[in-house]
Structure prediction request, 323 residues.
Amino acid sequence: MKAPLIAIACLALAACATAPDPQAPKVKVTPLGSHDGEFCPLDRALVFEDPDGTRVLYDPGRTVRGPNDPRLGRIDAVLLSHVHGDHLGDLIQPSANAGACPKPDFSVNVTPNSNFVNIAMGKQAPMIVGGEMHSFFQAKVQSLGGDPSKLVRLVRFGAQTMVGKVTVASVPAVHSNGLPPAFLPAEQAKMFAGGLTAYVGPPGGFVLRFSNGLTAYLSGDTGITAEQDLVVRGHYKANMVVMNIGGFPFTTGPTEAAYVVNDLVRPASVIASHANEPATVGGKLTPTSRTAAFQKAAKMPVHVPLSGKTMEFDGSGRCTAGC
Ligand SMILES: [Zn+2]
Prediction:
């Protein structure tokens, strides 16, 4: 009689161990895209909120409408993976939901400052960048009357910094990172003719470790890299991934991105990112979209970042609300 009783007790314990604890602290992730409730072509920006209240903005790009965008709230740090216009922010929308999801209206030019710099200055929140981007941003902040020592933090591969209780580590991305001359003052921009860009070091990704244990890998723009296995999983043990699925000709597409999450990082869940397509209509994923193809190919839940819709993640990397 004893054996079955023990088996039943163990089963009950195992159930207790795997059931999500509704009281456990959660990290809130809110996409700030071009159109409320949709996942649109240029959507990259996410706000992460630690249970301690720390709020970190990742790659504002074109869809955050400057530092006064009411969706931002308090921002404690702004992360940038690389300086291409769709991440640094060359253009922004004149108003909420301007244009249509397949073709948003980005008619407000914010060069040479950039949306990223304007937000960091407006919020007085440090920028966190790798490569050689820091010296460019220090000069930019100085020229705008800000304090570079307060507003620009360099974090190169292997290093990390703290924002509140959030650890921000820099990891490699394999992509390109030429600064478009539009972000330079006019006299300097003249030096770049014939399609040349300015060198600001390699692009990157990030691993964010939150106070509840959630460890999120933000891929940035990248192809498949060995570091996703050896560093992101091997060392940092990421349990959630924000994965670029944009595909040809820039980065991993759905098939490559599925390999990254299924075979290399192996997180509990994934947020699709950088789809370069209008992936949803009325908040519903289009079945023929590359986002849907990625969702099918991935072995773990893939969440669609609907603009303005907050998702909550527990310490094990699982979405517990809003997904
Ligand atoms: Zn990009």
About this structure: Residues 1-7 have pLDDT under 50 and may be disordered. The two ends are 44 Å apart (CA to CA). The chain has nine helices and 21 strands.
